[in-house]
Amino acid sequence: MTVSIPAPDGGEFSAYMALPRKGRGPGLVLLQEIFGVNKSIRETCDWLASRQFTVIAPDLFWRTKPGVELPENDFENARALRMKTDDNQASDDAATAIDFLRNHAACTGRVGVIGYCWGGMLSYLTAVRHKPDAAVGYYGVGIEKKLDLAKDLSCHMMLHYAGQDKFAGPDVAQQVRTAFAGDTRVAIHEYPKSDHAFARPGGVHFDAPAADLANMRTLSFLVDRLVGNR
Fold first, then answer.
1. What pLDDT digit, counting tens, does each position of 67-81 carry?
2. Active-site residue (options: 92, 93, 165, 207)
3. Please, which of 81, 106, 163, 180 could form a disulfide with 192 given CB 3.0 to 4.6 Å?
4. Parallel, antiparallel, or unpaired: how do β-strands 12-18 and 54-58 relate?
5. Which of the 8 DSSP states describes residue 168?
6. Is 87 exposed, middle or buried (0-12, 13-18, 19+ CB in 10 A)?
7. Which listed residue (130, 156, 160, 196) is catalytic?
8. Which residues contact 151 (CB under 8 A, 6 or more apart)?
9. Domains defined for the chain, CATH in brackets
């Protein structure tokens, strides 16, 4: 289903919402790739809801082209939309979605963020600019350009990197490791044989064994942070 979230600076934006079978669970704000809240993102929300999370995926392009859904091979239009969207403003919208979910009857109160590609970077950015209860980023593109904010991390965070990724590869993972050296709240995992978007089912680089491992780690982490009392 779709919900509407009021924006503090005026207007409102939509978000796809998926509920767990029990109708209530810990919250997750899922931050999109550059293709909008498309079928792949909605299916990921549904999958996380089947693991008993209450999930929303806000439309982060709403200020430029609300409701856009692009196929994952439409890089030209996707990159154009991404370039028109301010990262900090998108992070602020993610924080607004977190507050919305924390106060929703279907949420137990604790809310994490999880993002993929651009959304993976935004998950990090939200964790250093706002206060989610946990953050997960898959192959986040551009985190290394914002590591001056690493000192402001507000929660536990897990990041996944692909060894063959030309957008955010091992060199980027190493920069992030260095920035968070000694911070026990941060877990960084690398998948040497995988490429960008390895966890997107049906994608050209989908790597089922690596995706299963990353998702297992993510679920364990999220249960620990959002269900457990730590």
1. 999 999 999 999 999
2. 165
3. 163
4. antiparallel
5. S
6. middle
7. 196
8. none
9. 2-227 (3.40.50.1820)
Give the mean pLDDT of the chain.
Answer: 97
Catalytic member of 45, 104, 107, 117: 117
Round to whole Å and give the CA distance between 204 and 202: 7
Per DSSP, the three-state class of 113 is: strand
Cβ distance 156 to 221 under 8 Å?
yes
Q: Concatenated DSSP letters for 177-196?
A: HHHTTT-TTEEEEEETT--T
3-state secondary structure string across 53-79: CEEEEECCCCCCCCCCECCCCCHHHHH
Alpha carbon 230 to its chain's center: 21
At CA 103, angle to CA 100 and CA 106, rounded to 5?
100
Active-site residue 165, yes or no? Answer: yes
pLDDT digits (tens, 9 = 90+) for 38-63: 999 999 999 999 999 999 999 999 99
- Are the C-beta atoms of residues 205 and 197 closer than 8 Å to each other? yes
Question: For residue 148, what is the DSSP state?
Answer: G
The predicted pLDDT at position 229 comes to 55
* C-alpha to C-alpha distance for 29 and 88, rounded to whole angstroms: 16
> Which secondary-structure segment (H or E) carries 115?
strand 107-116
Q: What is the pLDDT of residue 32?
A: 98
State the greatest distance between any 2 C-alpha atoms of the chain, in Å, as a whole number: 45
175: its two tokens: 């920069």
196 is annotated as an active-site residue: yes
- 136-169 in b/e form (b: 16+ CB < 10 A) is bbbbbbbbbebbeebeebebbbbbbbbeebeebb
